[in-house]
Amino acid sequence: MAVYLDGQKLAAVPDWVAALTSLRALYLHANQLSTLPDWLWTRRDLEVLSIGDNPLQVIPDRFADLPRLQELYLHNLNLTAVPSSVAALTGLRILDLGHNQIEAVPEWLGGLPALEFLYLSDNRLRSIPESVFERLSSLRYLSLTDNPGIVLPASLGRLTALIELRLYKNRLETLPESIGGLVHLRELHVMDNQLSVLPKSIGDLRALTEFSVRNNRITHLPDTMPTLDQLRTLDLRANRLTALPDWLGELPNLQKLDLRWNKISARPSWIAGYERRGGVIYW
């Protein structure tokens, strides 16, 4: 059974939940819980636990007592570190640690072989150990947004199963050249950083369909990008482009091109053909 008690302004978990003979999923986020009941850690049948966005005074580091957990949501709990007992959850697929005050990613996080979705947005991360990304071979979604000053490890390119990567609002000045190793990546979001150039390896992201580089300092696009023949959306707003390469008009699947708030002096001749075949351009 799945029990949804999120957003109910609860100060305590109702007693009837403890009496349930089967409890597969328990959603308690966005309440007013200051403590968690002791019986919670006896529910070895739990596969989903969401306790984020509560004013919990103490978060017992007992997640190893819930060995069947596949989804764990610990967002907005003022955590300063990742609970060490999470390391035992080898079947975990989703881990949400967003909107906390975590300063370091433990190396053992790379030892969660089933992990597919990892949320680390809005923390205080400055770096990530190389070994973490070297082992997360199942990871499909990674969000590291809102960690100003973070330095990305070269091992980022080892996440070969990754489909979506969010890196915005990090004050990034560069992206690692290894990013080209993300051969299955479909969405790359790097807006609101301080990028002046893009790595040439961007051209290796042949599966990319959405690329947002809005609000950076880009002056030109890499000449390797014509290989992005699956690209449908390209957001280049608020950069420092003064001219556009002809190959932009030749990308076969490009449907939306946003060029607003640049300093492009001349409207390229290829734009007319691009619009005739149905492409939308924001100038």
SSE diagram, text form:
Layout: E1 2-4, H1 15-18, E2 25-27, E3 48-50, E4 71-73, E5 94-96, E6 117-119, H2 130-135, E7 141-143, E8 164-166, E9 187-189, E10 210-212, E11 233-235, E12 256-258, H3 270-276, E13 280-282
Parallel strand pairs: 1-2, 2-3, 3-4, 4-5, 5-6, 6-7, 7-8, 8-9, 9-10, 10-11, 11-12, 12-13
Strand content: 5-15%
Give the tally of β-strands. Answer: 13
Q: Please bin the fraction of helical residues.
A: under 10%
Anisotropy-based shape: elongated
Helix/strand/pairing class, anyone?
A: mainly beta
Written overview of the protein:
Helix content is about 5%, strand content about 15%. The mean pLDDT is about 95. The protein has a 13-stranded parallel β-sheet with strand order 1-2-3-4-5-6-7-8-9-10-11-12-13, covered by helices on one side. It is built from 3 helices and 13 strands, in the order βαβββββαββββββαβ. It has helices spanning about 15-20, 130-135, 270-275; strands at about 1-5, 25, 50, 70-75, 95, 115-120, 140-145, 165, 185-190, 210, 235, 255-260, 280. β1, α1 and β2 form a beta-alpha-beta unit. The protein is mostly beta strands and about 280 residues long. The longest helix is centred in the last third of the chain and has 7 residues, at about 270-275. The radius of gyration is 22 Å and the shape is elongated.
For this entry, give a set of tags.
283 residues, mainly beta, 13-stranded parallel beta sheet, 13 strands
The gist of it:
With 283 residues, the protein is mainly beta. The chain is built from three helices and 13 strands; from the N terminus they run βαβββββαββββββαβ. A 13-stranded parallel beta sheet has the order 1-2-3-4-5-6-7-8-9-10-11-12-13, covered by helices on one side.
